[in-house]
Amino acid sequence: MLRIIHPIAGLVAILTIATFWLSTAISELFASQATMIFIKTAIPWGFILLVPALAATGCSGFILSKGRRQGLVNTKLKRMPFIAANGLLLLIPAAFFLASKAKAGEFDIAFYAVQALELAAGALNITLLGLSMRDGIALTQWRRKKVSSSATHRSIRK
Question: How does the average pLDDT of the chain come out, rounded?
């Protein structure tokens, strides 16, 4: 069951963060102020989906690692503290700050400085999660080859 939960939760997490990032960037560049206010105040509500997805990804990944600490498993485990710290210390506080400023209509230098920081930190997390997803796919590639290989052998025997 964890082999199903882990990749689905990871995909939900990375897609949610990418949605936050893209909606912010697109609204800044092309949308009205009202749209920008809507997006910045809606993002914290997305944490209701994002936080459990990240928790499920982290917990299931830790359990699936079964104490292994070498190779790609170790690389993935080393990334997780950076992803978590970036989210907890930068992205979540920035999202609440920006939502508050947007709701008040205060698009000042502080808003745009934090917005730039948020976009950079978000891009970093998307990159780190993408690398972990790539490594996870590589870790399970042998299993997929084994399954498809045995299915091919069964169909040849029939």
Answer: 89
